[in-house]
Design the sequence.
């Protein structure tokens, strides 16, 4: 794999029992590229993203990911945090596990940026869906990842929150490799260097 | 290595904090073990003797542990937190060890109430019996945290957890009862120590495969 190639899939397949959700998918992404993954519900977008971050194993084909586990930021359908902990406690826990330097400053900066500073000591279980999504974005960006894998990042966000995501992606694109699954590809058309269209 | 143990400490502390806040597990374990001992007290014929009582203590302890293990991974299932832990660059066995330590803390707390209650209702416990409880608790939590994670990842975890855990707990019950009633408890304590060592190593090595596809 050339040094600048961060992701390479070659004939990638994913099956759940008899159901095949990905078949013969091939693509490669170089450092700094932004790929938009599109497709109808059930076309395998989430499965593809889980393969890319290592949460699932391919059923066939080959997948190479140059970024190590600790340099990947993953935003899933769920926020991947603890409901009974506060936003601050959650980010502190994940900051420790990711060995984030100057953890408190980084957490404070992200909570401010995503408008959660005032709610930092509230339990996540009391958050609205949109606030949980904002917290999930904070967790995803906490360790300043090289490879960002985002599954429908605009979900549940209000206009202001969605604009924040757009601005964040615009800042990071070019510097980071980004893979975004979305039902709104037009939002990212200015950033996208590659489109991966999945069919059922 | 210090990074590994600081990860374990952070994960165990998180579980203790979750329990202090939600109070989902420990009160249920305490109520269960006490009510079970009270029921056994009335169910056991007076002429049964102490040996039968020691056996019933172990039934109560194993099922109390099972109750705690059934809830052990629930916080990780809500909101997909386990995926968040699995993606972190820490050694994945640290997740298991942190969970085992937190589960052990809950079980020891339940035993701190159950053993005096047992002494009050049935018979006194000597040092060998208490050492047996301590060693068996370590085994219960190390192997239990692993099989609870396996059960949590599958449908019908309420059925699968006892099916996986109880056969693995039989040697612990044998060792625990033996250390309570035998004239030579040292053999049983050594057996429990060996079980703990073997199953801790196996669980430590196997956890990565349990949480990844």
Sequence:
């Amino acid at each position: 794999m050339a040094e600048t190639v961060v992701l390479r899939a070659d004939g990638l397949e994913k099956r759940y029992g008899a159901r095949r959700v990905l078949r013969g998918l091939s693509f490669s992404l170089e450092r700094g590229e932004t790929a938009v993954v599109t497709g109808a519900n059930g076309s395998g977008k989430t499965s593809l993203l889980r393969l890319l971050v290592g949460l699932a194993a391919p059923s066939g084909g080959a997948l190479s990911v140059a970024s190590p586990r600790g340099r990947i930021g993953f935003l899933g359908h769920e926020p991947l945090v603890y409901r009974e902990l506060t936003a601050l406690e959650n980010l502190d826990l994940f900051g420790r596990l990711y060995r984030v330097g100057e953890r408190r400053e980084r957490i404070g900066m992200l909570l401010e940026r995503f408008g959660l500073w005032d709610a930092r000591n509230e339990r996540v279980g009391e958050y609205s869906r949109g606030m949980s999504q904002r917290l999930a974005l904070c967790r995803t960006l906490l360790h300043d990842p090289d490879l960002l894998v985002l599954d429908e990042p605009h979900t549940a966000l209000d206009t202001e929150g969605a604009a924040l995501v757009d601005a964040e992606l615009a800042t990071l694109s070019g510097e980071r490799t980004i893979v975004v699954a979305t039902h709104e590809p037009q939002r990212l058309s200015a950033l996208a260097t590659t489109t991966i269209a999945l069919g059922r | 290595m210090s990074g590994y143990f600081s990860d374990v400490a952070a994960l165990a502390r998180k579980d203790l904090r979750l329990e202090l806040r939600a109070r989902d597990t420990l009160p249920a374990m305490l109520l269960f073990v006490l009510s079970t001992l009270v029921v056994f007290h009335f169910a056991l014929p007076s002429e049964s003797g102490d040996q039968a009582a020691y056996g019933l203590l172990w039934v109560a302890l194993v099922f109390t542990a099972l109750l705690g293990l059934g809830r052990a991974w629930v916080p990780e299932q809500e909101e997909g937190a386990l995926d968040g832990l699995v993606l972190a660059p820490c050694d994945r066995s640290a997740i298991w060890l942190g969970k085992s330590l937190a589960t052990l803390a809950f079980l020891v707390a339940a035993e701190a109430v159950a053993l005096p209650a047992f002494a009050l209702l049935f018979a006194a416990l000597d040092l060998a019996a208490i050492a047996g409880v301590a060693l068996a608790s370590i085994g219960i939590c190390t192997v239990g945290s692993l099989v609870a994670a396996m059960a949590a990842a599958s449908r019908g975890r309420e059925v699968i957890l006892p099916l996986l855990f109880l056969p693995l707990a039989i040697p612990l019950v044998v060792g625990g009862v033996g250390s309570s009633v035998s004239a030579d408890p040292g053999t049983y304590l050594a057996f429990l120590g060996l079980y703990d060592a073997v199953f801790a190593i196996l669980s430590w090595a196997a956890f990565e495969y349990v949480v990844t596809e």
Q: What stands out?
A: Chain A has a mean pLDDT of 95. DSSP finds five helices and eight strands in chain A. The first strand of chain A starts at residue 5 and ends at 16. Chain A touches chain B through 31 residues (CB under 8 Å).
